[in-house]
Please model this.
Amino acid sequence: MLLKDRVAIVTGGATGMGRGIAFKFAGEGCSVVISDINESEGKKTLEGVIQRGGKGLFVQCDVTSSRQIQDMVSETISNFGKIDILINNAGGVPGLVGFKGVSLEDINEEQWDYMLNLNLKSHFLCCKAVVPNMKENKYGKIVSISSMGAVHPRVAVMHYHAAKAGVLGLIYNLALDLAPYNICANAIIPGPIRTEFYNQLMESIPDKDAVFTMMGKQIPLQRVGTPEDIAGVALFLSSELSSYMTGSALLVAGGEPLPAISPSS
Model:
């Protein structure tokens, strides 16, 4: 029971990687607060947490709203007395369809601001909300989910990838700032993980399994990842197994990135 008596907040915990992390933590004795805008799926995740022997709470929360984040943190402390772990997982690329990317000319200022609010500012706001309690307890684990596109983009989706690159910068600085308080901050850089993230990208493709099989053949381990692959690393970074790690970004991508191929080759 690597997280016995610990309390974790998992943003975007209703589906995908967030759900996988919530289930993994519950099985390790953790009380899990599932934060998400998707109430129906969030409650399903809560049921799964309880089935795995964990205590849990679902809080509907839009992570672009500092007020809702603060309410979520207050509800967590009211129910469980503390916050030991924050998993910054909520995010996404709303409206993106297909794998062709988005050019600079197709991104307006409003879209840029929204994407950075959802995928970067939300991490800042959640950290700012939980850190006072962590400092008071002289203990904390912060894990933020970045993206392969932050360090090795295959196509240009610059507002999303810029935000996810900013997540890494935030984590490196948080690690330095919070180390005196025994609060560790690390990041996970996932490769292709089969989650709901891909549903809108492939909404017009009838045989999605074939696409994932093809993607897997391009990866050294010959498969796309699963939420459980990310959950295992999140558990490591949230437990005492990683007690001497902070300011790190772990690539969880089946052996990627492959060497970049220049356009002229």
Q: What stands out?
A: The two ends are 51 Å apart (CA to CA). Residues 105 and 173 are 32 Å apart (CA to CA). Helices lie at 16-27, 39-51, 66-80, 109-137, 158-178, 197-201, 208-217, 227-238. The mean pLDDT is 92.
